[in-house]
Each structure stands twice: as C-alpha cells, then as structure tokens.
Amino acid sequence: MPHLPEAGIADPRTPALDLTTTIEHTAWDEFKPHLVRLEAVVTDNYATGSDPVLCVRDRNGHNWTIELASRARNAQVGLTESAALPGDPVRIIGRRARLFGEQRIKAVHLTIAGRAFELYPGALG
C-alpha cells in the first residue's frame, strides 16, 4: 500500500533556479556590457537558420559574425533572408564578444540599406 504524507507535511515547492533570469543572463554573458557600432557590407545571410547570423565585412577587410535575435523575433520585425542581400550596406549596434580577437557582435539594432530593424526594443536606452 502506498504511503501518503499526512496533511500539512507537503508544502509547495519552489525551484532552486529561476530559469527565466538564468536563460536571459547566459544569453548575454559572453558579450561585453557596452554597445559598439560597426559599418560593414553583408557577405552572407543566415537569418532563418538554426542560429540566425549575418556575415559582414568592414571597411578594413575584417570579417564579422553578427548574431541576430531568434528566428521568430527576426520574422516579427521583417528581417528575412531577402531583407539583407550580399553587397547591402549595414550599420550594426550591439555588444561585442568578450573573447580577445573574436570578431562577433550580438546585434540589438540593425540598419540595412536604409531600413531599420529593432531586434531588442529598449536595449538602446
């Protein structure tokens, strides 16, 4: 016969970790806290891939990987593969990766060929 706890022994459980804040913090932990700006030209667009990114080249010939928002958020703001074609000028505002020498930015705002995309509203302050 199963043993059931007496009334009053069982109490509501609370999780050890708050997963919503844990996920939010880990998504940005590998990036510096201050915003940077970059002007470049689109070389490849993977906005609808499993890890949405833009590949760009700056004026000095350096290649950068620009991490975008989730696929759902990108679609919501109109950022599709046809919105950024190779050769299009792009201005990026975002957070640069913490690792030395890594050419990667998590974008919070993009302007592609004169069209603005606000990936994370309120992130610009």
CA-based gyration radius = 20 Å
| Beta strands, count | 6
* Strand order in space, largest sheet: 1-2-3-5-4
The number of helical elements comes to: 2
**Euclidean distance between termini CA atoms:** 61 Å
What is the average of the pLDDT values? 83
Low-confidence stretches: 19-24
Decide which structural class fits the backbone. mainly beta
Strand residue percentage: 35-45%
Order of helices and strands: HEEEHEEE
Q: Which percent bin holds the helix content? A: 10-25%
Summarize the structure.
By secondary structure, the chain is mainly β. Helices cover 14% and strands 39% of the residues.
Description:
With 125 residues, the chain is mostly beta strands. The chain is built from two helices and six strands; from the N terminus they run H-E-E-E-H-E-E-E. The protein has helices at 19-29, 71-77; strands at residues 31-46, 53-58, 63-67, 89-97, 104-112, 115-118. The chain has a five-stranded mixed barrel. Mean pLDDT is 83; it is low at 19-24.
